[in-house]
Fold this protein.
Amino acid sequence: MAKSWEEINSRIAAGEAVVVTAEEFSGMAAADGLESAAKKVDVVTTGTFGPMCSSGVFLNFGHSDPPIKMQTITLNDVPASGGLAAVDTYLGITEPSLTRGIEYGGAHVVEDLIRGRAVRLKAIGPGTDCYPRTEIDTWVTLDDLNQAYFFNPRNAYQNYAVAVNSSDRTLYTYLGPLLPRYANATYCSAGALSPLLNDPTYRTIGVGTRCFVAGAAGYVAWEGTQHNPNQVRDEAGVPMAPSGTIAVIADLKQASPEFFAAATFTKYGVSAYVGIGIPIPVLDEEIARTLALTDADLTATIFDYGVDRRSRPSPGRVTYAQLRTGEIEVDGRKVPVGPISSLPAARRIASELKRWIAEERFSLTQPLQLLPQPGTQSFKPLEIRTEEAI
Amino acid sequence: MPRKRFDLRFPPRQAAKPVIYHLVKDYDLTPNILRAQIEPGQQGRMLLELTGRKEAFADGLAFLEREGLTVSEAAADICLDDEKCVVCGLCTAVCKPQALYLDDDFALKFDKDKCVYCEACVIACPRRAITLRF
């Protein structure tokens, strides 16, 4: 029953493609059998909406008169990089404000820009023959900028940790407050809707894949940072702990505040909820098998954040179906558990992407280059060495 | 047995009187102090949940008023800003009495009767969408 990318794209162009979300697809496979669902459906859409710290935007402000080489740059008091050409910058979303700390950061600037709000730009330059101005203080909106695009080095983590805390004090983490002595647990994945969990060995998601990024049409630009294809996998080949990642690029001017939301994790820092959705072509039964997996088939690993080492001990594994019930068992104890990744938003993203493909004829792109495959690269730690030891 | 929540205001000089003891001993009411801010020489405030027989309520409250306290039905509330909320669900992970919970569709729900105003959700919410009115 193999279908080619070209066949699927021509059906999309003709408005004839059958597109369903990953949740709908597993329902169809359960009701009519995998073979029938695989035959019937051309594209399965996925979605996720969780905090993704490794995100940011490239901005170009245009030149003032006289021009300035911006070296120390702030946007609403949030520092942005001065390490690029004169009026280019990169603003990382986790950067805290100089005046408001983590209550307002890079993510909040990005959200303000998407919402059309004016942002105060201040910069200092060295004053050179070609860029004589040494200071600037002005206001900019997203419309004023020449280019503004996301370049998120690590998004859409393939699976993630379930966090618990065995210690005696509350820990404030990027997975939220973890109450002492296993009093709660948090997790962060869209489970069966998660893009990379639906294509566990990166057959269709690769460099050049067109996708949904914060409401804009963007692309997978590269493997994400910390992409680790060699994580432990289950019988279906799906990683059971954090593994693959993607870097994405997309036009900030097309982004929507519905799918990008700044976040502050108390006593941790700034982050942002980023909506990512990726269409997966139903090329054959092999990919259909992983597309049909449900939360009951997907496993996450529990990690104890109460042990402050790089390798945290794991008190076990749970399925996403167990996590979704709101209570898991850890070391024989019943532990209430809550998500950090929004399931309603993930569903909206998968549905919106479905609409793009079915109604706006959003076509799929075959990867220009595959992401590093299982068995190809290891995930390296950082060792602390002295100069003499090199 | 009926259960009600009250907002008690203590005049500055009244802070040392063991009124809670009397509510238990003399009126057979079961108090549950949800929040309290009582310091010597200052007006104090307490959010108190009382469980007891219907008749005992009126007598108990009359006693508090005789002692100089101002008593009103509690207006404290957790306010959720729907514009800001992204329904991630993190607040449900820190809410010990499970007043905040996700329903079968993963929509966020709030059961006011279970809330103990601990503010764990206020601190946890990454969108700063939850505030406490007290």
